[in-house]
Amino acid sequence: MRRWLICVLVCVFALAGCQGGEKDTGGAKTDKLTIGLVLSVGGLGDKSFNDSAYEGLTKAEDEFGIIPLYGQPEQMAEDEKYLRQYAEQGADIVIGVGFLMKDAMDKVAAEFPGKRFAIIDAEVDQPNVASLVFREHEGSFLVGAIAGLISATGKVGFIGGMEIPLIHKFEMGYTEGVKYVRPDADVLVAYAGSGPQAFSDPVKGKSLALSQFDRGADVIFQAAGSTGNGVIDAAQERGLFAIGVDANQNYMAPGHVLTSMLKRVDVSVFQIIKDVVEGKFEGGIHVYGLEIDGVGYALDEYNRDLISDEVLARVEEIKAEIVAGTIQVTDYTATH
């Protein structure tokens, strides 16, 4: 009898210990949070979109001591599997990187209404999903203005990855920025393809860039994931200029990356994790624009000598006018 009573007491204390370690899903946590990040096809090493998202995750790990999990689907069909896996494992929030994950996110978030989710570059109408979107057209307008003011030939280029509304958003903002400062400029446009692989083909990116350089362009803005790395290679090879995208890519070819259109995916990932840590998570649309430095352009030791004080002052004036609403930049996705 005594031995049986001891066994019962041991089990009771063991169960109490397990219950005490559970995380309160309703607010800020006392234990370490687990964060699941599902990267877009192409994964780490793109020096752009995915790498920026991962940077936000690692910053949160450093500052909040979270437990980071990240998955790298090799194809879109795997997105749903990764999202569901992290939700089932009890991640405190599951973050999907990229608009290509929209349908998978919508389905999985509906299956787990008590779990928190976030998606970058898409709007998912579920109360437990935070949709993190950017005003890419504003940042693209600024780098377009820089390209127009710097170009010696009056001809510049744009190379997109997958031909979809989101990338047309970059293209239109860039073109408007070029034309705003140089109405007579020509803007050459090309896309790498119509499928997801268009974001991971640097050989195709270099070929398209060389073609535009051969046609007289001396500055090319690329919004193409790792395909854009080929555009930067081409600029360095020809002694001309490329413009980076998403992350600061100025370092990739010093003297040949005129600037980079910053899309602070790292900031959005870090902020939504911070919201969860502080018990402030909210579903719905979260917008990152110029007024909060959610987008912008890069200026550092690698490109400072390429942009004169006069050009810099002009671009800062344009930035202030966009924020004030004096300059209205067309949002392609809002009109198509």
The gist of it:
This protein is α/β, with parallel strands linked by helices and 336 residues long. 43% of the residues lie in helices and 20% in strands. The chain folds into two domains: 31-134 and 266-292, Response regulator (Rossmann fold), CATH 3.40.50; 136-262 and 303-335, Response regulator (Rossmann fold, 3-Layer(aba) Sandwich).
Q: Name the helicity range.
A: 40-55%
Query: What is the rounded distance between the termini?
Result: 77 Å
Which CATH architecture of the largest domain is right?
3-Layer(aba) Sandwich
Count of alpha and pi helical runs: 11
Shape: globular
How many domains would you count in the coordinates?
A: 2
What portion of residues belong to β-strands? 15-25%
What does this structure look like?
The protein has 336 residues and is α/β, with parallel strands linked by helices. The protein folds into two domains: 31-134 and 266-292, Rossmann fold (3-Layer(aba) Sandwich); 136-262 and 303-335, Response regulator (Rossmann fold). 43% of the residues lie in helices and 20% in strands. The chain has eleven helices and twelve strands. Helix 2 (49-64) links the parallel strand 1 and strand 2. The chain is globular, with a radius of gyration of 23 Å. The N and C termini lie far apart (77 Å).
Ordered list of secondary-structure elements with their pairings:
Elements lengths: L1 H19 L13 E5 L10 H16 L2 E5 L7 H10 L4 E5 L4 H10 L5 E4 L8 E6 L1 H15 L4 E8 L2 H17 L4 E8 L8 H13 L4 E5 L3 H12 L2 E6 L10 E7 L1 H13 L6 E5 L6 E3 L11 H16 L7 H4 L1
Parallel strand pairs: 1-2, 1-3, 3-4, 4-5, 5-11, 6-7, 6-8, 8-9, 9-10
Antiparallel strand pairs: 10-12
Helix pairs in contact: 2-9, 3-4, 5-6, 5-10, 7-8
